[in-house]
Amino acid sequence: MSKEELAKIEENDTEDVLLVSDEIAVKVDDVSILFNLNKEGVDSFKEYMIKLLKRQLHYDEFWALTDVSFELKKGERLGILGLNGAGKSTLLKTIAGVLKPYKGSVTVKGVIAPLLELGAGFDGQYTGKENIFLYGSVMGYSREFIASKYDEIVKFSELQKFIDVPLKNYSSGMKARLGFAIATAVEPEVLILDEVLSVGDAKFRAKSEKKVRSMFSKGVTVLFVSHSVDQVKSICNKAILLEHGKIIAQGTTDEVCAIYEEKTSKSLEAQMKDAVKDLNKVKNKIAKINKTAAETGEAVSAKVVKDVQVKVDDINREIGKAAPAAEEGDT
Amino acid sequence: MDTMDKVSFTEKGKGSIKNLKKYKNLLVELVRKNIKLQYRGSILGLFWTCLQPLLTMVVLSFVFSMIFGKNSVANYPVYLLTGRLLFDFYSGSTKKAMRSIRGNASIIKKVYVPKYAYPFSNIVSTFITFAISLIDLVVVIAFFNIFIPGKAIYITPCVLLAIIPIIVLAVLSTGVGFILATLQVFFRDVEYLYDVFCLLLFYMTPIVYTVDKLKLGSAAIVLKANPLYGIITAFRACVTGQTGLAGQKGLEATYGPGHLTKMFHLAVNTMTSWTFVYATIFAFVALGIGILVFKKKQDKFILHI
Q1: What is the pTM of this model?
Q2: What are the E-state strand segments in chain A?
Q3: Chain A residues in contact with B4 (beta carbon < 8 A)
Q4: Range of the domain at A143
């Protein structure tokens, strides 16, 4: 890549133009995902038969996603927000094809580069070079194609010296670098990001961010999961908010982010209120004990006093922790 | 700059042919990996593929010729080796296929990969090492022909017919491998149970003994219900003529006029006998069930591994 081109990309960076076309790139249609959560894992045949005969073989059904629908045009960037366990990762895995929807369908046009779990297809005994070819094949590329990209991958990962060393001797940062280099060696049309913009050390992070940004400027469709509202605002033009597997808000980034922030601050407020309620309960109890002690003239045992004090300290600490977080959420 | 053909997989799972084409390289890479890593770190490397069966043959023929007495079967080590090579392929490939889904759980959980690639690549890689280990058979037969002239085994063009029992064996292993791979995802017990089962199977297959030596009576039906019995017997009939059956014993030594015709008749007779026909049907039924079960359950794997 020439300097001029690089400069052009950087220019694009700052402008951050969205190249949206009318073509639909990702279509998620009424997708529902059902998990069977069996409380005690039945994975032995004996257990299975016994439970089957005793008719204890019932599962707890858990809808990880219910009736999720959205469409993305080519070049659009979607932010996916939600608290832990809202179904964000499940949604990404469904789009990437790892999970099959129980109901509904997912349609993706073009090459997907899932930057999820970098290096999941690596083998520890294989060298870096062998792993490039293995991982490429896991992503569905031909050997010739990987060979044509090989030099680029090695150069980008900065692992020239270690490329013939078995992967088990790599540090986790090196593995992530290699995984990132392979996953981004293609020119993907759909990019799935799960907060992996932080790969390796600061230097490599800057490099990988630049690479991702350069893909943005080429009009790639992006699905981005993050807890950071700022990141979502800076990258995406659309967003959805998930709660308990349902889309509860959908629209422009600003609208959805506002709702998300309100939600998070509300949930923190609720936690704080609970803590205060607990504290008041304990205080009332202390007052009661003191009262009875005064009335009967009995001395309160040292142990009880100590126990109560410990509990009060616990709650105070909890409130101390929650307060700054709530403030953050409010702003 | 993008040389890759842009596949638009509108619906994964459907359009299996397209999928197969796209992931052909994955299959090749996995087979390559299995073979490369099997002996990595050992000094003799892939040479062990040949050395190991040879050494076990020496041990087993020493032990069992002490038990059965000498001259129970002419060229006993050759008889032992043919049985063991085929049995090792069957047990090795099915066991590896069985463990392949759980063994690659970390990948299957995170990236989309066609799941059949894992059991199937294990069958293929074991088949390749099996094919390499057939060199042993050539070496041992040559050894007997050169150094023990009285008991020479004459290789006839009939040996080419051995491809038929080998194909049946590969079909059987693939079918059983797919069934076990599916079962093992849902019940881990299968893994341990099958290890014991393979030990039982080893003694239920005429590998160290010949069938006519056993006084089984009506219990022989249990032995003949084992599809490996028909396959191994057919393989031996094609290669060495040692079927181990009464009336046909010692054919390997009857070299002379009409030997080729005799060998040919033996091979054809064995392969049209009901034991081999039964084994063939068994193998293809197993393959059908294996593919069906695997296909039906593969989307549930991720929830259990």
Answers
A1: 0.80
A2: 24-37, 60-73, 77-82, 103-108, 112-115, 190-194, 221-225, 238-243, 246-252
A3: 111, 141-142, 145, 186
A4: 3-25+73-254
